[in-house]
Design goal:
Low-confidence stretches: 8-16, 70-74
Distance between the termini: 16 Å
Structural class: mainly beta
Mean pLDDT: 83
Oligomer: single chain
Number of helices: 1
Order of helices and strands: EEHEEEEEEEEEEEE
Number of strands: 14
Helix content: under 10%
Radius of gyration: 16 Å
């Protein structure tokens, strides 16, 4: 699953998240990189965080939301897809969620049977962070030579052009008012980031 669509519907976007270019990945039937979900519809900090950019597998720039989500079910400024190119093994799109900063974010997904490549490109240098959230069944990865290894899964993830990799825990929503602890990766970069998921 790859989200390269606009926030909608325009007339009632109350369930929308600030999640442009979010994606999920299953290994056969096993959930691996996942959407963090929603655990509440109350107008509180938890719902605000769960709708925010940092709770999705995408990029935040200068710690500013891609789209303004607030008040539980409100949406203000919205990231819009400017163009999209797609074929059977690649998708490239960019959005204007940071046009107020003069920044355009382009993300390309390329895949084959052996790996998935994700390239994030910004038109100028910025303080950017890419997030990758893992299912609660996935054990903490091992980092060696800037590469993350996922034990018995036989999967590894490598990064290029980054400045830092950090592993943290987060709460994955398993249903209404139900959460489980899981791991996420935060990758700092400046202008471009190449992520390779070796299957």
């Amino acid at each position: 699953f790859i989200d390269v669509g606009n926030i909608g519907p325009d007339y009632q976007p109350g369930h929308a998240h600030s999640d442009t270019f979010n994606f999920e990945l299953r290994l056969n039937t096993l959930p691996f990189i996942v959407d963090t979900g929603i655990s509440t519809y109350e107008k509180n900090k938890t719902r605000q965080n769960e709708r925010g950019t940092v709770s999705h597998n995408t990029v935040i720039i200068n710690n500013i939301e891609q789209s303004d989500v607030w008040g539980g079910f409100r949406v203000g400024r919205r990231a819009k897809i400017l163009n999209i190119i797609e074929n059977k093994s690649q998708i490239t799109a960019n959005h204007n969620g940071y046009k107020n900063l003069g920044i355009s974010h382009e993300r390309t997904f390329k895949w084959n049977d052996e790996k998935i490549e994700i390239k994030d490109s910004l038109n100028k240098s910025s303080k950017a962070k890419a997030f990758f959230h893992f299912h609660s069944s996935i054990n903490k990865p091992r980092i060696e030579n800037e590469t993350l290894f996922f034990g018995d899964l036989g999967v590894k993830i490598s990064f290029s052009n980054h400045s830092n990799i950090e592993i943290q825990t987060y709460k994955l929503s398993h249903g209404f008012n139900s959460k489980k602890s899981a791991f996420k990766i935060i990758v700092d970069f400046n202008k471009t980031l190449l992520t390779k998921i070796h299957l």
